[in-house]
Design a protein that fits this description.
The protein is α+β, with helices and mostly antiparallel strands. The chain is built from 15 helices and eleven strands. The longest helix has 20 residues.
């Protein structure tokens, strides 16, 4: 039986666990509310860069030793940076938990940031940025969020920019750590076959005396003005995003926003997929998406197609939005969307790293552990009238921004 527990330690560290009897592996994560939104002015990309540099060595271990110690035990370490947090995590076999915990706690608390490693890693991260710019799919999503979240901390790309990354100083990295990596800004999340008390004991042991930090709220999203931009690249297809913003994680309407997105463009049974691909054959890739943050989400419709077909594709998109907001959702369509959401959530629970992430994610955004049963109940409780009421207030088509990536500079003029 699933067992979820939460403990808030005196120093502010939150420990959240799920005990899974009989599990042969575990997933462990250390989460800091220290993402792109927390970056100082002029240092875009430093949260992601620090994430890279954490693995480059400590006072006790070289980069090679960090990797070999965990891989020799059949596990792995990794990390990722988001706009609102950074996570360092491990997946390993049950008998190797204590060593894994010790290594992870060491790299977080004792990085040395050697000058030669910083210089080398700058080149690696710049290559990562260039790779993202070479990929129209990556580029267009970054540009879209920069456009709709303009003049807020959410507009910044996670990877940063080449010019900012190349200017990072060793002292910048230490200052970012000192201001953001603290006990009262840390969630330790675990999923596996160990008692909650054991995890708390390990945190007490290895984070005894871990400093606190002054928690600051990032700047809030303030205003929005629909805009259009064109990015010229020598590619064969045209890539397009039409979109705006919707409710974020903290909004009671977010589940309505999710169902709206699913019905419109998520999955092969969605309206956009059926209209653009199945009925008209004008797009291989077409989908809607909802990238959510604390108080707001980026909502959009993405497609790639032949440039000559782009105006027709956009017309079909607006037609489907009009049909949807004209209250033409069938009972079967709403139920399909609910089952799609429930299925996606339930299937994700088959992975221990996913379960570990969901615990921390829930605590980070909601301040509590949201049980699977509660999430399923929230999805089930939505009625067609609730969804209609939500859509009545959207006026999306009048608020869409447009981003196009292709080689035809005239395209933007022909797209509504």
């Amino acid at each position: 039986m699933e067992e979820y527990k939460l403990t808030a330690l005196d120093n502010g560290i939150k420990v959240v666990t799920e005990n899974v009897p009989g599990a042969k592996s575990f997933a462990l994560g250390f989460w800091f509310q220290a993402g792109t939104r927390n970056e100082p002015a002029g240092l875009n990309g430093i949260a992601h860069f620090v994430e890279h540099m954490i693995f480059k060595g400590t006072e006790n271990r070289s980069a090679k030793k960090i990797t070999f110690e965990i891989e020799s035990l059949g596990g792995y370490l990794n990390a990722f940076t988001a706009k609102e947090y950074t996570c360092f995590y491990a997946h390993g076999t049950a008998g190797n938990f204590e060593k894994t915990f010790e290594v992870l706690s060491d790299i977080i608390q004792n990085p040395v940031f050697r000058e030669e490693d910083i210089k080398r890693e700058k080149q690696v991260v710049c290559d990562e940025i260039y790779d993202s710019h070479d990929s129209p799919e990556d580029l267009i999503f970054d540009e879209f969020e920069s456009l709709i979240f303009k003049d807020s901390s959410l507009e910044l790309p996670i990877l940063g920019k080449v010019e900012t990354v190349m200017n990072f100083k060793r002292d910048d990295l230490f200052k970012f750590i000192e201001k953001n990596y603290g006990a009262n800004n840390l969630i330790v999340s675990f999923c596996g076959n160990l008692r909650h008390e054991k995890i708390v004991e390990m945190v007490d042991k290895f984070f005894n005396g871990f400093r606190k930090v002054d928690l600051r709220k990032p700047g809030q999203f303030a205003h929005y003005q629909p805009q259009k931009i064109h990015i010229r690249k020598e590619i064969n297809q045209s890539h397009l995003i039409l979109g705006s913003y919707l409710d974020g994680y903290r909004s009671k309407n977010r589940i309505l926003a999710r169902l709206f997105s699913v019905i419109l463009g998520e999955g092969s049974g969605s309206r956009l997929f059926q209209s653009l691909r199945e009925e008209n054959g004008i797009a291989y890739q077409v989908n809607s998406f909802l990238n959510s943050y604390m108080e707001i989400s980026a909502f959009g419709i993405y497609l790639s197609t032949n440039g000559k077909k782009l105006p027709f594709a956009v017309d079909l998109i607006y037609k489907e939005i009009d049909n949807l907001t004209d209250k033409k959702i069938t009972t079967a369509e709403l139920q399909r969307a609910k089952e799609y959401l429930k299925g996606s959530y339930i299937l994700s629970l088959e992975s221990f790293p996913n379960r570990m992430q969901k615990l921390a994610h829930s605590l980070h955004y909601y301040g509590e552990i949201k049980m699977p049963e509660e999430i399923i109940k929230d999805i089930e409780s939505v009625t067609a009238d609730m969804l209609y009421g939500y859509m009545d207030n959207l006026s999306l088509a009048n608020n869409f921004s447009t981003v196009i990536v292709n080689k035809d500079i005239k395209t933007l003029q022909n797209v509504a």
